[in-house]
Amino acid sequence: MATRAPDRPTAPPRPAGKRRRFNGRHWRYQADVKGSPYAYVTPFFLLFCAFGLFPLLYTAWVSLHEWTLLQDEHPFVGLDNFTAVVQDSYFWNATFNTLSIGILSTAPQLLLAIWLAHLLNRPLRSQTLFRVTLLLPNVTSVVAVVVIFGQIFGRDFGLLNWVLSLFGAGEIDWRAGTGTSHIAISTMIMWRWTGYNALILLAAMQAVPRELYEAATIDGASNMTQLRKITIPMIRPTIIFVVITSTIGAMQIFAEPLLFGAYSVTGGQDRQYQTLALFIYENFTRLDFGYASAISWMMFLFIIVIAGINFLLTSRTKGDLR
Amino acid sequence: MFTLPRRRVTRLVVPLIAASVLAACGGEAPAPSGGASASAPAENITLTVALFSDFHFAPLYEAFKKIHPNVTITERRSQFNDHHNNLVTQLATGAGAADVVAVEGGFITTFQQVPDKFHNLADYGLSSRQSEYLDWKWQLGLSADGKTLLGLGTDVGGLAMCYRPDLFKKAGLPGDRESVSALWPTWDAYVETGKKFVAADVKGAAFTDGPGEHFRAMVEQAPVGFYDTSNNLVVATNPDVKKAFDMGVSMIQNKLSGKLTAFTPEWTTGIAKGTFATMVCPAWKTGVIKDQKPGEGTWDIASVPGGGGNQGGTHLMAPKQGKHPKEAAELINFLTSKESQLTLWKDASALPSLPSLYEDPAVSTFVNPYFGDAPIGKIFTDAAKALKPQHTGPKSGDVLLAMGNGLSRVELQNQAPEEAWAQAVSDAEKIK
């Protein structure tokens, strides 16, 4: 830098540079440097516009109409669909279920993931084996997971009820209750995503300087204390990233409740585990596209609000670290 | 050093973008359908047939090709719900539908509302077949206004009551199917039989799976169901619906129900393990029972209370997108003909919808050894004949779901019967 500094005042003779631009090779070089990055990202944005942005805007357009798929006329109704959604108790029921399942799955999942990552964040034999094992539930198909867990949480022949009966507990109809069905569905989500999140947290943990742990060990800090006082504060940004992705994922839970209820679009007879995504699906299968689109947009707003809260939390933490 | 490879990349980027744009467009292009691609002269055409399972049509296609050597038939199958949802999308977007499509009874009302999306088979002379058909089956193939012939029926799902003789004997009830059928001429008698069964306290077994299917059967036996003939929802005012609902409530209150929903793991396992003793049984459910391997003779078949009934059964229709309506109509005519229906009964146990076949020995004397040599041909055809035609409204399937969920809320003890009824009715009325 120091040797370059004197060159700076010589900025005015730019015309020379301009003249040089007429040099074909240089022009192409410039176009390449300036243009290529945009060209590289274009495929993504084209696909995003076709499959992300356009459906989003079109859904907004549809939500302002009385839109039944097989009818040729779609009269404009303004915000009527949204008024109806807000007054629909089933919508709020689905919102409650989504939040409940979201919290029940995300919170234990995060604690478990941190703990697992902490266990793996030490010299172990065959580390790769353990790490790959963590990821295995995530690469299993959702359908397979739900079918197996659906059997485990069975009322009459379920494995879990059998184990509970050994301890003298009565038979639990897991699908029937609000709480019990939420626990069952949260378990499936945790099974699939804990390992995945543990790997992300493990990557962050490995960036924490070893010296801190060595110093703490010399000071006589226990394993748990090291986790609480060193690891967690050091990987906080990653934890927040995991929280954000998990909560957004939790807002979109769909396959688990649908398959858990043997393809019941109402999410159980009393809608006890109907999530927002499933509620949208129910109205789509009834071909009531206007209403379903309005619910989709409400869900979109919820996700924006939650992402906003997360964003605020993140920026606050950044301030803390500085 | 690096400019050269970069430039090469730039050159690559353009075709890449072009390719991705093309790929994006490709996603919206219609699936290659035989009707669209065969714009060749009328001599050589391809007909596409879309089904939701194996209908055992393959030998019939071969026979059809012998009469129409210029026609090639391709069949595509998809999962039951997907098949019908796809068809709705294809009709709405105007592309991708097959030349001949199968529509099942539970979905047919959706398509009765949009006759302009289908070829009127009456224009191709198929209305002449009306006299051959069970009347109610014929009516189902008409549009909601009755003016267009949308489709011809293939099979029907005659209704019976499947039961377990072993559990009946344990409860001190008769085990043979004539005596069992005599136990329940009406639904009230069925509930009374159930009470006796419960009083006998057979360990680990409920009298029946759940009240939903019984409610459905009872509503469908009434002269008027969820809708009147002008498609007005009459759930709240039709006494027969309330009566059926109350029958369901009484089944729950007398502890007849095993609180099971059809096709859940508990239900399918329960078929083999014997956790319930009776279930409403359309003809096709015998296949479901057999798949669970409860053992030969474990289940038997008696007649359904209330006299007859039907669940399911399919129609074949020709969407207007198809370019060869004449040939499509001929194929539909062929596949639903008397000879074809008899073949399908023999090959696939599909119960014919042409009553003249019910006298055919191949149907009337057919016994099923898996169900204790039950004369299932006779039982199911009797049920199909006894059914009085009922007008099915536009959203019957969704209304049925709302009402069934109401019964379940009583069953889960989340609601009192009157409350559940009120909510079910208001749910049904919200359905557009």
Automatic annotation (TrEMBL), chain A:
Coiled coil segments of this chain: none
Membrane-crossing residue ranges in chain numbering: 38-61, 99-120, 132-153, 183-204, 234-255, 289-313
Biological process terms in GO annotation = transmembrane transport
Q: Which UniProt keywords apply?
A: Cell membrane, Membrane, Transmembrane, Transmembrane helix, Transport
Subcellular compartments: Cell membrane
Gene Ontology CC terms: plasma membrane
The record's PROSITE patterns line, in alphabetical order, gives: ABC_TM1 (PS50928)
Q: Look up and give the membrane topology term.
A: Multi-pass membrane protein
Protein name, as recorded: Sugar ABC transporter permease
Q: Which InterPro entries has this protein been placed in? A: ABC_transporter_permease, MetI-like, MetI-like_sf
* Protein source organism: Acrocarpospora corrugata
Q: Which Gene3D superfamilies match?
A: MetI-like (1.10.3720.10)
The record's similarity note reads: Belongs to the binding-protein-dependent transport system permease family.
Q: Name one Pfam family in it.
A: BPD_transp_1
Region of interest called Disordered, as start-end residue ranges on this chain: 1-20
Q: Where is the ABC transmembrane type-1 domain?
A: 95-310
Task: Report if keyword Transmembrane helix is assigned.
Answer: yes
TrEMBL record, chain B:
Q: What is this protein called?
A: ABC transporter substrate-binding protein
Q: Which domain of life does the UniProt lineage start with? A: Bacteria
Any coiled-coil regions, as ranges = none
Matches recorded under PROSITE patterns: PROKAR_LIPOPROTEIN
Signal peptide, first to last residue: 1-23
Per UniProt, which keywords does this protein have?
A: Signal
Give the lineage. Bacteria, Bacillati, Actinomycetota, Actinomycetes, Streptosporangiales
Kindly give the InterPro entries that the UniProt entry links to this protein.
Bact_solute-bd_prot1 (IPR050490), SBP (IPR006059)
